Amino acid sequence: MIILNRLIVSGRFRTNCYLYGDDNTKEVGIIDPGIDSHNIISVINREGYIPVYLIGTHPHHDHIQCAFDIMDYFNIPLLINSFGIRKAENIHFIKENDVIEIGIESLHVIETPGHTNSDIMLIDYKNKLIFTGDTLLRGRIPWQLTNYDNLIASIKKILNYNNISDEFKIYPGHGGHSTIGRERSRY
User: Fold this and answer.
1) What is the layout of strands, in order, in the sheet containing 2-8?
2) Nearest to 30 by CA among 45, 16, 42, 20
3) CB 16 within 8 A of CB 55
4) In the chain, where the domains are located
5) 2-184 classified as CATH 3.40.50.720
6) What averages of pLDDT result for each successive group of 10 residues across the chain (187 residues)?
7) Which of 25, 40, 104, 131 could form an S-S bond across to 122 if both were Cys, CB 3.0 to 4.6 Å?
8) What letter does residue 116 receive in the DSSP assignment?
9) pLDDT at 113
10) Nearest-CA neighbor of 95 among 119, 125, 127?
């Protein structure tokens, strides 16, 4: 059984932060912690979760501004694609085809540039879900783009990716969730 909690981080961007992990071990990864660490830390402590990673889908401040607070509080590393982030202690760069293990759960990394040059998505094949960051939002294109053509190519990449069916749920960086099938009908 997986742990999947969505927290909406305060602030004008209303970024989605996800706690994802293994219900047996209570290990979680914190995906896109946003700008305010207090609620995230409170929920983790209240639920007895054991954070093992902080994962950024891209380096925009509304997704990782409080990363260092959380990294220091729990003594965990930040996993992020390298572009735009300086190498520092406890930051590990991830890339296409890397697999992040959290207890018995696995997230597969896919690079999806367009919103930024270093966007990634995280695929859980077993539970049929994808954390899409700001690359694939429910029913709309993200506001900020580094390259429109790259963004559309990345969206088409995930919509046609190996072993991804219509039933896969997407959990974006902003707004509500959707499914691959619903989003395929829009592109």
Assistant:
1) 2-8, 16-22, 27-31, 50-55, 78-80, 91-93
2) 20
3) no
4) 2-184
5) no
6) 83 87 97 91 97 94 89 96 74 95 98 92 98 92 80 93 95 94 90
7) 131
8) S
9) 93
10) 119
